[in-house]
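Per your request, structure below.
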């Protein structure tokens, strides 16, 4: 492999969605992140609070409630991006903006639905109606990615602000990052 490394021009990047994934990838020799999926920060251990704010954003029915949810979600997104960039110091990191079918994040458990109805100050029937509205039969052609950002530019703004702020914070500490 040393001989190959002397001749190759292609860099080996990994998919990594958390700082822990990024650290593991570096340990195995990754030369950057080829795909960092923002929506994956809402899965797994320690994601409960961020996921709750994301759900509030998805289920909001007005620009004001959506903005409140985005304001509460912002520090989680910024911090996750910043810590992953820190781990990847000096290496490139391709960041994909949120692209999941939104209905994948909606709770199915009664307790979580109750928490959401209280936070949004709506009754359970209204929540059920909103959930039905966002369910997609063909998520690949659905309301996600760029289409979501066109409909709700504030969601794209939150992500761009998180990426740029995380980058600036690290650069201010003389940490080289390449988002």
């Amino acid at each position: 492999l040393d001989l190959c490394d002397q001749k190759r021009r292609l860099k080996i990047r990994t998919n990594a969605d958390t700082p822990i994934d990024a650290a593991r990838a570096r340990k195995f020799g990754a030369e950057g992140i080829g795909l960092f999926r923002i929506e994956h920060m809402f899965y797994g251990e320690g994601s409960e609070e961020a996921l709750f704010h994301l759900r509030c954003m998805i289920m909001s029915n007005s620009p004001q409630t959506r903005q409140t949810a985005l304001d509460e979600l912002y520090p989680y997104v910024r911090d996750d991006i910043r810590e992953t960039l820190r781990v990847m110091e000096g290496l490139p990191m391709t960041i994909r903006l949120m692209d999941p079918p939104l209905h994948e994040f909606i709770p199915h458990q009664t307790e979580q639905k109750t928490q959401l109805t209280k936070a949004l100050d709506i009754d359970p029937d209204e929540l059920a109606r909103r959930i039905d509205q966002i369910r997609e039969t063909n998520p690949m052609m659905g309301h996600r990615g760029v289409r979501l950002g066109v409909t709700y530019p504030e969601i794209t703004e939150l992500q761009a602000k998180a990426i740029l702020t995380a980058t600036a914070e690290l650069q201010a500490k003389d940490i080289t990052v390449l988002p």
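Residues 63-87 form the longest helix (25 residues).

Regards,
D.
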